[in-house]
Every structure is written in structure tokens, then in C-alpha cells.
Amino acid sequence: MPEFNAFFETLRERIDREDTVVSVGLDADLDRIPEHLLEKDLPRWAFNRRIIDATHEYAACYKPNAAFYEDADGWRSLRETVAYAHGKDVPVLLDAKRGDIGNTARKYAELLEHVDAITANPYMGRDSLEPFLSKADKGVFVLCRTSNPGGSDLQDLELASGEPLYRRVAALADLWNERGNVGLVVGATAPAELEELRGEVPDLPFLVPGVGAQGGDTEAAVEHGLADGVGLVNSSRGIIFAGEDAGEDFAKASGQAAKRLRDRLNRYRD
Ligand SMILES: O=c1ccn([C@@H]2O[C@H](COP(=O)(O)O)[C@@H](O)[C@H]2O)c(=O)[nH]1
């Protein structure tokens, strides 16, 4: 079993030091950002800065989803956000779900020059992930059993061997973990699969989305999401929009929501 790489060691240090496995999802949706911020030059950055100020002491990492930044101002906002999170010593995991033929994946993998870890789609196989995997000091979270209702449509399909596809993905990800830089994405809405996968790949840390707005199982997320104490449980809308109706005080409510989630998850940690 390879040891954790630099990213996972940094994450482990952060988790231990701050006593939290909360991933704060920065899905800065312009349709939900408080109105008074919309006049700013970069509203998403203005929003994220306030959210980071209010939540960083409860955050093991920040997870911006690329979908909310894929325009010119969005990328500028994201760069400012990443620099600010780093200034608070919090790692950043970009939820980008990339993966393509090697030549294209090589360009996607350049995203890792700016962030500490990324989510990747394994559907096109090992060569499509190699450019990410070869960045030995970064983290690569491979989509395995996703939290959405349609996650079962393909991921649960039984292979000729009798095993479901998500289990094969987990086994492959374990093989791809030569550098100790691989984790899995497994949704909190699939607690049975979380438990099963923890048994299959005991050494891979999980990123567990789906608590909060999606109603996933927080206890299962913690009990099975961590490998040797390392793993992340993400909430995005449940934290960043907790103060949606609080006007100028919106970030305070986010800080309280992040603290509540941290405390709740910590009840299940060893
Ligand atoms: O299986 C998956 C993989 C990724 N996500 C992403 O996580 C957050 C969840 O947001 P919430 O507001 O906490 O529901 C979002 O960025 C998703 O794209 C996921 O939910 N499930």
C-alpha cells in the first residue's frame, strides 16, 4: 500500500489540527448570491471571500465546483478565491469531473497548477486519467458511486463477473494509486455502497458529497468515508446559502452552518 502523497498528508495535517473533515463547497451561484454583492466587480469572489472568512476555521478544504466559474469573470473569481483560501492555509479541491483522451486530458490536468486536488471521471479509462495521476503531489478523486438519483443507472450495472460497475471502478482506482494520490467520490445518499466500498478499498480516502441539501447519511459518510482518519464530507448549498435571507449578515449564518456540520460529523469520528 503506497503512503499518502503530499496532498493527502497536508489534508491529514489540516484535519488533525483543525479537528474537521468538512469540505465547504463553493458553488457560487450568481442566481443566489445576495443582491448587495451583485454590484461588485467580481460578485462571486466577493461572496466567496466573505464565506471563507466565516467558515475557514471549520473547513478541512474548499471545493469550488468548476460549473459555477466557467466564464471569463468566473475564472478570475476562482483564481482570487483559491489564493485567498491558500492564504488561510486551506487546501482547494476543484470539482471539475474531467477526463478525456490523453492529449486533451494533459491540458485539463494543467488545472492542477492552480489547485491542490481535482475530481476526475474514469469513464474513458486509465490513459484519460494519467495526466492527473502523474502529478504526484496533487490529489485525484475518481468518481465512483455518485450521490445523484441517476447514479445507479450505469454505476450499479452488473458486469459479467457479477460485480457492479462502481466496484470495478474502485478496484481500478486502487490500482491507479501507485503514488498515494487517489481518492474516490462516493455519495452520502448511498450508505450501503459507502460501507461496501470502504471494505473493498480500505486505503483510499473518500470525498463524500450529498449531505445537507441532498439529504445523505452523515453518520455513514464519516464512518465509511475516512481512510486512516483522512477523508472529506462535503456540503455546498447547505453552508454557503444558509444565510440566503439574512441580507448583509449572510456569511455569519454560513459560519454557523459549517460549525454545526463539523460538530455533527465529529460525533462519529473516532
Ligand atoms: O456524486 C457527486 C459528485 C459531486 N457532487 C457535487 O458536490 C456538490 C454538492 O452540493 P450540495 O449543495 O451540497 O448538494 C456539488 O458541487 C455537486 O456537483 C455531488 O453532489 N455528488
Gyration radius (Cα, Å) is 18 Å
**How many beta-strand runs?**
8
What is the distance, rounded to the nearest whole angstrom, between the alpha carbons of the first and last residues?
22 Å
Instruction: State the domain count.
Output: 1
Helix/strand order, N-terminal first: HEHEHEHEHEHHEHEHEHH
Proportion of helical residues: 40-55%
Low-confidence runs of at least 5 consecutive residues: none
Quick one: overall form?
globular
Biggest sheet descriptor: 8 strands, parallel
- What portion of residues belong to β-strands? 5-15%
Task: Describe this protein's structure.
The protein is of the alpha/beta class and 270 residues long. 41% of the residues lie in helices and 14% in strands. The chain has a single domain (6-265), classed as Aldolase class I (TIM Barrel), CATH 3.20.20.70. It is built from 11 helices and 8 strands. α4 links the parallel β3 and β4. α2 packs parallel to α3 and α2 (43-55) crosses α11. Bound molecules: the ligand O=c1ccn([C@@H]2O[C@H](COP(=O)(O)O)[C@@H](O)[C@H]2O)c(=O)[nH]1. Ligand LLZGTKA7 binds at residues 25, 27, 65, 95, 146-148, 185, 187, 209-210, 212-214, 234-238.
